[in-house]
Amino acid sequence: MPAKVHISSAGEFVDSDGNQIQLRGVNLDPTVKYPSNPHGSSHEPLTPEFYDNANEVSFVDHPLKANEVEYHISKLKSLGYNTIRFPFTWESIEHEGPGIYDFAYMDYVIEVLRKIHGLGGMYVYLDPHQDVWSRFTGGSGAPLWTLYCAGFQPRRFEPTGASILHNSFIDPKTGKENKVYPKMLWPTNYYRLATQTMFTLFYGGRKFAPKCSINGQNIQDYLQNSFIAACMAFYGRILERAPELFEDQCILGLETMNEPSVGYFTDFDLSQVPKDRKLKRGTTPTAFQSFQLGEGLPANVDTYDITVFGPRKTGATFVNPDGQSAWLTTEERMDVDSRYNWQRGEEWKAETCIWRLHGVWDYTKNGRAQLMTSDYFARDPTTGSVIDLRYFINGFFVEFFQKFRESFRNIDGESFLFLQPPTLQEPPSLKGSHLIDDKTVYACHFYDGMSLMFKSWNRLYNVDSLGIVRERYANPILSIVLGERMIRKCIKKQLTQMKEEGKELLGKNIAVFFTEIGMPFDMDSKKAYNNGDFSSQLGAMDALGYALEGNNLSFSLWCYCSDNSHEWGDSWNNEDFSVWSKDDIDKSSASVVENDTKSDSDSDVVSSFSTISHGSVIDPMIGNDIIPCDFNGFRALNAILRPYPMKICGEFQDAEFDLDKVEYRLTINATTRAAQGVMQTLIFLPKKHFPMGQTAIKTTSGKFLYDPNRQVLQWTHQQGIQSISLRKEIEVADDPEGCSIM
């Protein structure tokens, strides 16, 4: 079983003896964003069945079929990875209706988790995943009935501009795109009527939509309570039916909602597109235009495209010329209310925009739309305070977190709770509060903005993405960094800043974990898939690795997709982030690299002047099973297969893996631990980079034992500041079998 993981008083992951450890792995995997039966990826044509059969879908076999678990987990172990972020969606649990749970799916997940546990050495934490609210608003997450609950008719989102779905770009006859789906168009749904309304209701319905009550609750409470109850029903069933997963700490804990959005909050003038909005692509309506379009009023909407220096207006287009409505008719609402046993408050009128119902806008006597309160969402009606990002995060978001945390701690007081605030924003200021304990993890996400939006790795220049989001530059041009060396340092600095502000605002005892970080693989218009040149992807992934290891950060790459293909990527909105693809399997070569079982029988550790002996390193952190080196299908392998400190007897100081020179450097502050008697640090040392007979070691002190079956270097060293450097060499004199000491 894997060793128990704790969080130290300094906010580092440690084992039971206080040795610092690092958790690294992947998100497994994005197929959970859509049903397995009927198959419902974003490149399936949009048909009436997409909506009609939404309550009958099944997510069983997503992310993996049970009989494929060993195949994929073995591949991840080949990389030295020890952790899986396991996404699930609200829809996968509660698609049939409020309070009706899919126990077959839950039991399937339990079977998959048991198989992962049975393979040993892997930790798992669960992620309630969402993107722009729901797959019915162009993303993933919430079930269809939540949109009906808010009074929406999703079948009419497309013509009204309330959401844009990749599915609507697919020709039903050919199954191909009949028009180009622009890169990263899906996140613009965060600023369209459906998604913005849903998040506003979810976090602030009581204050801003008091007329929207359902079954005696305001819609905010109805949605939040339903979401939390579904998550806890799922987690609780795993806890009840597979307690060994928790006893052996295969399951580390649960994350809060993935990438929460602020809705309309912080929008200070509903008649204008906020100047600080960084993402504008395609049609970009103002909030007021979205309200009108939703009620069937056509409008000329500005269109934008993305440039290095920010959004650029490209023109305008006429939206909703047929005057369709995104809201349920009276008859439609009666039907859904009957189906889901909903009783709405008397003030909640059908066929009416929620925000017109609350006086945000209305019609004049001559029938023209008029904005009544342009700053409706900019002030808290109970306090009068301005609702900026800090106010939202420390108020509305914290209120949700407190409720989620209480429900979680009621059923599990021992596992980790991963706190995730809005992406790239500061976490709430909770240091010293009762909401933070020694089992709280700060969950960060990071993506490099330029690489993400343009799907390229620009070695000449880049920008400080975090600085732009935080509005640290008067002009975006001031955020530019030149040259690949400075770009790498800039990314590292951004991660450092996120780690430091987590400690400052949540407490120094908080562990920081990048639960999502990654780079697109379909760079340069997918050229690598034709010519095999993955140099852009190698450079991009190596830059992330450099930034992470230099900060000693635990992470889960986005992502590992078991269904990835060159044509459709991760099968969701043309995203293609998977480090592995079935289309990159080399069927002509052997999949498994043979393990090196040669050992030195003379001794298991040696002096610093002799060669490194082979032997067996058995440790709870790495398990006792032999790890095959199965790299077939991985992309940019040299950049994602990296050495790292699996266990440090002491404290991390610095580390860097130089991929070009094939050199790894680690510095630690070693401390004596009476429980172990000796000071030993374990380093995952991949044979692909550091083959025996071609690796030289330079160190301040130490004796070494290399376990080729587990690719682990055991370093027994002295106390104090200690450093080790490993370098691949073409030839190592007089050492055909092991490593030499420099």
Automatic annotation (TrEMBL):
<dbReference type="InterPro" id="IPR017853">
    <property type="entry name" value="GH"/>
</dbReference>
<keyword id="KW-0326">Glycosidase</keyword>
<dbReference type="InterPro" id="IPR052066">
    <property type="entry name" value="Glycosphingolipid_Hydrolases"/>
</dbReference>
<dbReference type="Pfam" id="PF18564">
    <property type="entry name" value="Glyco_hydro_5_C"/>
</dbReference>
<dbReference type="InterPro" id="IPR041036">
    <property type="entry name" value="GH5_C"/>
</dbReference>
<dbReference type="GO" id="GO:1904462">
    <property type="term" value="P:ergosteryl 3-beta-D-glucoside catabolic process"/>
</dbReference>
<dbReference type="GO" id="GO:0005829">
    <property type="term" value="C:cytosol"/>
</dbReference>
<protein>
    <submittedName>
        <fullName>LADA_0B05578g1_1</fullName>
    </submittedName>
</protein>
<dbReference type="InterPro" id="IPR001547">
    <property type="entry name" value="Glyco_hydro_5"/>
</dbReference>
<feature type="domain" description="Glycoside hydrolase family 5 C-terminal">
    <location>
        <begin position="642"/>
        <end position="724"/>
    </location>
</feature>
<dbReference type="InterPro" id="IPR013780">
    <property type="entry name" value="Glyco_hydro_b"/>
</dbReference>
<dbReference type="Pfam" id="PF00150">
    <property type="entry name" value="Cellulase"/>
</dbReference>
<keyword id="KW-0378">Hydrolase</keyword>
<dbReference type="GO" id="GO:0050295">
    <property type="term" value="F:steryl-beta-glucosidase activity"/>
</dbReference>
<dbReference type="GO" id="GO:0000272">
    <property type="term" value="P:polysaccharide catabolic process"/>
</dbReference>
<comment type="similarity">
    <text>Belongs to the glycosyl hydrolase 5 (cellulase A) family.</text>
</comment>
<feature type="domain" description="Glycoside hydrolase family 5">
    <location>
        <begin position="69"/>
        <end position="133"/>
    </location>
</feature>
